[in-house]
Amino acid sequence: MNRTPFSLRGRVVIITGASRGIGAGTARAVSGSGGSVVLVARSADDLGAVAASLPGPSRVVVGAVEDPAVPAMAVAAAAELGDLWGLVNNAGISPSYAPTAETSDEHWDEIVRVNLRAAAAFARAALPAMVATGAGGRVVNLSSIAAFAGLPNLVAYNCTKAGLDAMTRTMAVEYGPAGITVNSIAPGTITTEMVQQMMDTNPALAEKFVSRTAIGRVGTVDEAAWPIVFLLSDAAAFMTGQVMLIDGGRLAGA
Predict the structure, then answer these.
(1) Residue of 176, 213, 171 lying closest to 191 (CA atoms)
(2) CA torsion, points 210, 231, 77, 64, in degrees to nearest 10?
(3) 202-205 CB contacts, 8 Å cutoff, 24+ apart
(4) At what angle do helices 118-133 and 70-79 cross, to 10 degrees?
(5) Band of residue 99 on the pLDDT scale cut at 50, 70, 90
(6) How far apart are the C-alpha atoms of 8 and 26, rounded to whole Å?
(7) 23-78 pLDDT, tens per residue?
(8) Which architecture, in CATH terms, is 12-190+221-245?
(9) CA–CA separation, 59 and 62 (whole Å)
(10) Which residues, other chains included, contact 4 with Cβ-Cβ below 8 Å and sequence gap of 6+?
């Protein structure tokens, strides 16, 4: 099949946390680039709305990413569309803010289960399917500048994002010989629905986000999604084990 280096035509990609935010934006970008997508999230209604907005083929898998049955369901759904090419581990939570000494075991368990162990479970399900095709593949993990910046009151979240980057490097070494690349993207402040609501209700917070960004604004969902498409494409075939910062220069000025 002829394709340009940035095209995803004929390729099947699983996207977790695909009902909104960066996950939904990535689904639109992948589909717009010719790919087929498997959308994974908890909300059937939201997933249905995203699927209906896509120009290309899709499947919907409703379930929590931390449910042990869901990764296999996603891989099975991908098989209905063709050979599995890519996995985007986008789903994640940051459910509470507290200093380290006040961060409970329950909080640690929840955020590690969703942000880190679920990503590992999806990789564990998807990688054998990619290897079996003999055509290579792509994994993109959604990290954060929190893996680098030590954001206060988010110790468990920060640790899970740093852990994802360690997993990225490990899988890159393990699966490179099979032609599978594994990379992370680390967004700064992106105007997802949740972030936009926070900024609308707290203008001081919005100003703080903007003032810390070198280019003087926060990022859009599309500006996070399109770098993921690049990492999924042939254009990034020689890039693996890396963390790509998508932060508008926030860490550059730290």
Answers:
(1) 213
(2) -30
(3) none
(4) 30
(5) very high
(6) 12
(7) 999 999 999 999 999 999 999 999 999 999 999 999 999 999 999 999 999 999 99
(8) 3-Layer(aba) Sandwich (3.40)
(9) 10
(10) none
Nearest of 204, 194, 233 to residue 93 by alpha carbon:
194
User: How many whole angstroms separate alpha carbon 91 and alpha carbon 87?
Assistant: 12
With vertex at residue 121, the alpha carbon angle to CA 116 and CA 127, rounded to the nearest 5 degrees, is: 120
- Written as six digits, the tokens of 31 are 């589909």
Domain chopping of the chain, boundaries: 12-190+221-245
Tally the C-alpha atoms within 13 A of residue 220's C-alpha that lie toward its C-beta: 5
Pair of tokens at residue 166: 């360690």
List residues with catalytic annotation. 157
Strand 137-142 relative to strand 180-187, pairing: parallel
